Amino acid sequence: MFKTVDDVQERLRDQGYICDKNISTVVYLASRLEKPVLVEGPAGVGKTELAKVVAVATGRELIRLQCYEGLDEAKALYEWEYSKQLLYTQILKEKLAETMAGATSLRDAAERVGNEDSVFFSSRFIVSRPLMTAITSETPTLLLIDEIDKSDPEFEAFLLEVLSDYQVTVPELGTFEAVQKPVVFLTSNDAREMSDALKRRCLHLYIDFPDAELEARILDAKVPDVEAKLAKDLVDLMQKIRGLDLKKTPSISETLDWARALLALNAEVLDQELVSSTLSVILKYEGDIQKAKSDLGKLLEKPKQAEASTVKSPPDNAKTKKGALH
Into how many domains does the chain fold? Predict the structure, then answer.
């Protein structure tokens, strides 16, 4: 895995993911302590991307479970392939008849068939879903449970066995323990509060909107063709837009989209007309767009230069004397 916290930052940077010390520290500790990471924060700040680049940086196979309302164990863990079981039953009909031949009662026939359960309830009839795949994989994996806050509390409770013991139980077959413990990342957009039981099993990481310095570094890494002056103006404007009372605050992903859009338009400067016509790239609600347009003059206003000092400069001869004395 990772040797040090700095090693995490360097290897993630090699994959194009610029992160601060807080993120790299949590990732390092997760690898050392073998604990899942619950990554929370607004949409678009790089939570899912973090899991992806950690998988690449560590050479692990990424297995992703996308959560949604109504997700149950069958969709996340495994399903029985009933059509295949039925096909085998038809093919083996003659053998089943031979097995039941000579049965003196219905109970006796049922017991004879029951003794052959292992034929029809075995791993050959199981369709593995992400959780089962991650647990039973013989090669190192990274399990990404994406947008866990969209799932139901019942499913969250079901996950506790997986995250506590890295094992899953199939009633017909028994318990499967992890061959290689997967690295686990769970992401949440704060649609609902996660349970204390889940949080206790995880390291917590909150990724917020980046500050101007970090956003500029990310923009330079992801869209290097943007000129420095335009990139600075773009980042400054995004920082101001996030200060507005919006329904959906634009994140770093929108910053990158906007930068690519400006490149496509061969833009050199951010003027009011250009910004107004491209706000739909970063703002997803008409109310937010209209609010930003109404404040556009203030948003594009450049900070006033510091006023010249009121202290008069010494005459040239005084400067000369001072220089000579020093």
Answer: 3
